[in-house]
Amino acid sequence: MDNQTGIVIVSHSDKIANGIKDLLKEVSENIKVEAAGGTAAGGIGTSLDKIAEAIANVSSQKGVVVFYDIGSAKMNAELVIELNQWENVFVIDAPLVEGAYVAAVKTSIGKTADEIKREMEAEFPKCK
């Protein structure tokens, strides 16, 4: 499992992030997926610390793909990646549930984060 692409779900809601995580675990129990939902105090919003911890928890040689719900979640995910100078970690512009689900399938068959990113750009033109 250490050599598997990680998936992170960033949402303004802890319930949404964890619900999607549960859905992805239905695709394959063995995928590496973390939820980063809500603020540190448990409210609506996002937390840089939660996002960083989630990425670190699923990090692997194959990289990490990050999905988000709305604009500031994307901005905070990109900021965390930049501040930590992480390479091979990609924020994916795709519909949250559908994109994460497709990524889970691709991860379960051994695709790297870079391969998933490129394939998502083809499947979801908004990704470019």
Provide an overview of this structure.
This protein has five helices and four strands. It is α/β, with parallel strands linked by helices and 128 residues long. The protein has a four-stranded parallel beta sheet, with helices on both faces. Helix 1 (14-27) links the parallel strand 1 and strand 2 (32-37). Helix 1 runs parallel beside helix 4 and helix 2 packs across helix 3.
Task: Identify the notable features of this structure and list them briefly.
single chain, alpha/beta
Write the CATH architecture name.
3-Layer(aba) Sandwich
User: How do the strands line up in the largest sheet?
Assistant: 2-1-3-4
Oligomer: single chain
pLDDT < 50 runs, ≥5 residues = none
What are the secondary-structure elements, in order, as H or E?
EHEHEHEHH
Number of H/I helices: 5
Approximate strand percentage: 15-25%
Number of DSSP-assigned strands: 4
Mean pLDDT level: 93
Q: What is the assigned CATH homologous superfamily?
A: Phosphotransferase system, mannose-type IIA component
CATH topology: Rossmann fold
Fraction of helical residues: 40-55%
Number of domains: 1
Net shape: globular
Please state the structural category.
Answer: alpha/beta
- What distance lies between the first and last C-alpha atoms, to the nearest angstrom? 29 Å
Just give the CATH class.
Answer: Alpha Beta
